[in-house]
Structure formats: structure tokens, C-alpha cells
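stage 2 :: seqdesign
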């Protein structure tokens, strides 16, 4: 993330910098999803992490990636809207467990 973050900080109004940032986030999300599937397939998860927990984790990863994809599309309209959306998505995942409506997403 350091390269794409510094690229975005240096060229904040350039769409290409935002696309590079979103692509990096997408790649990391895909890696996390694959790692979870691998851990699940090879019984590396705690016994408390049953099918319900595994399904929730997978859904959260996919939902986050969908939000990031929407943010990537926003950079086509206005790069600053896309950056604002980055902040909102990150705040959602930081405080969602404390807000009843957002914790269900």
C-alpha cells in the first residue's frame, strides 16, 4: 500500500492515481479472500469459526470489494468524490460494529 498511497497523495486529482489505489485495494481483497478459503479448506481455522462465521467473513470481504469498485467508478465522475468515498468506507469498517444498522452490512 505505501506506493499507491504515496502516488495518490502526490497526484490527488489524477484519475490514474486513484485507479492504481483502487486496483491495489482490489488485489489485497482478492488475496485475503483466497487466504481465507485456503485456511478453511486445510482446517487451519479455530473450531469456533464454523460455517456461519466463515460465511460472514466471506460476505464482508465481497461487500467491501463491491464498495471499493463503486469508489473506483466514482473517480470517473470526480476524483475528490472518490477520495471522500474512500474515507467513508474506511470509517464504516472502523465503526460499523458500534452502529446497529451498519453492522449488518
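stage 2 :: out
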Amino acid at each position: 500500500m505505501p506506493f499507491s498511497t504515496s502516488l495518490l497523495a502526490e497526484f490527488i486529482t489524477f484519475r490514474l492515481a486513484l485507479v492504481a489505489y483502487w486496483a491495489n485495494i482490489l488485489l489485497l481483497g482478492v488475496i485475503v479472500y483466497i487466504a481465507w478459503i485456503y485456511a478453511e479448506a486445510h482446517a487451519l481455522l479455530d473450531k469456533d469459526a464454523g460455517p456461519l462465521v466463515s460465511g460472514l467473513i466471506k460476505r464482508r470481504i465481497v461487500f467491501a470489494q463491491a464498495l471499493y469498485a463503486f469508489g473506483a467508478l466514482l473517480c470517473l465522475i470526480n476524483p475528490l468524490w472518490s477520495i471522500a468515498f474512500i474515507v467513508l468506507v474506511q470509517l464504516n469498517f472502523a465503526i460499523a460494529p458500534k452502529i446497529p444498522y451498519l453492522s449488518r452490512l
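stage 3 :: structure notes
- The chain has one domain: 2-103.
- The mean pLDDT is 85.
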